[in-house]
Amino acid sequence: MTLPPDYLSNTLRLIFILSIPQAVLGLWLGFVCMGVLPERLAKRILILAIAHSVYVDIFYFLIHIWANFINAVLSMYLLISLIFPELKSKIKILLIFFYLIFAIIFEMIYGLIVQFSGGNDTLTTVSVLWQIVLFAPIFGLMALIIGFMHWKKIHLAQQLRQFIIHVRSKPYFMLLLLVILQLSLFMIFFSNVFFRTHAILTIQITFVLSIMLFIFMTIKIIQIIAHARVEGIYQSQEAYLGDLNKMFASIRGQRHDFANHVQVMYSMLALKKYDQLRTYMEEVVKEIQSMNVAVVELPSPALAALVQAKAAIAMEKKIRFDYLVHTASLTFSAVTSIDLVRIIGNLVDNAFDEVTKLPESEREVHLEMYIHNSDLYITVANTGKQLKDEEIEQMFNPGYTTKAEGHTGLGLANVLERVHSYNGHVSVDSDIDRRVVFTIKIPNSELAKSKLA
């Protein structure tokens, strides 16, 4: 194979002036944005950047741009696996995603410099010192921005990372891969426009593929949004029916045990143990009434069924579950019943999970729903452990959970999404006295519309 003219000097310039700084900053940006900061991060990033830049740039002037790009992406993934073996596969792919974003930003800046410097051929023939003077300020400014983000702990994609890690739906992961493919096509397009302008056919093919991929991604995003809405409704209905089944099972259990209760009470009566009989009867009556009170006090069928279901679960888990639903709140029609069930159900379930970690005597959950200044307020308080500010900040992130396996960490995220869809607000207070209190405030949008009319 015959090497191009000035192959060695051009390759060395590409490695040390452009590729290594670009790789270091691109990888650093990815780690900071995701909030993933492994041990010896700086040292390992530098080793990875040098190894990747040297390997890829050796072939840069020898193979086609398509082959070079595929080689770059695959080698990046393999090197990340070797140098950061503790990272999960999805994190590695996200890291490459942010690396490509940074590379595209730099390619656009480089393209502008090429245009104002007389073309790529002119830029590659200037002195090494001039190239350093030209690109060092750009890399320096980017390093300052990323360093500031690192220092201030500005993790722009932390929620995206948590969502991608915990999501089990293939369409979301496939969409991420399509975005990476689209970024790859952009990279190839810029490279051919600014650096290898003779490859007109490659430019045309890349452009057509980019348009087709963009159309496909748009359709896919619409499908995912529609599927997510249907799946959200289905999950709410499934949880709702699951709670009802537990309630009915509890009622059937009460009926089954009723004969045993009668026998015990008859025996106490025969033995003339009247005090013990009175105490035992009060416990039995209290248990039965707890399953019937919601129907009497709550005229809303959906809310009554939900409260009954949660009361049955609370009884099973030895939780003291109190609720106060003001009559005025039942006339609040700005929120659909299914969303009301979803919001309250997730908050109460989360509260139950927290208090079951405590001794039975300390397990308390309180639900209240009322109207204040025409706005709907829902509060769910539990006696769980006091939360730190960091936990409160992260608890609504998709995928974040402190529970055991089997929990997706999407319950509170779904609550936040539903409340925001009604222009509402969610707040969390945690102190020694009240422990943990979730407060939902939803404005009466229908009242606002009527006033405007």
From TrEMBL:
Membrane spanning stretches: 12-33, 45-63, 69-87, 94-116, 128-151, 172-195, 201-219
SUPFAM superfamilies, sorted: ATPase domain of HSP90 chaperone/DNA topoisomerase II/histidine kinase
The answer to keyword Nucleotide-binding applying to this record is yes
- What are the Histidine kinase domain coordinates in residue numbering? 340-446
Give the reaction(s) catalysed.
ATP + protein L-histidine = ADP + protein N-phospho-L-histidine
Instruction: Kindly state which keywords UniProt assigns to this record, in alphabetical order.
Output: ATP-binding, Kinase, Membrane, Nucleotide-binding, Transferase, Transmembrane, Transmembrane helix, Two-component regulatory system
InterPro entries noted in UniProt: HATPase_C_sf, HATPase_dom, His_kinase_dom, Sig_transdc_His_kin-like_C, SPOB_a
- According to its UniProt record, the EC number is 2.7.13.3
Give the enzyme class.
transferase
This protein is called histidine kinase
What organism does the UniProt record list as the source?
Paenibacillus plantiphilus
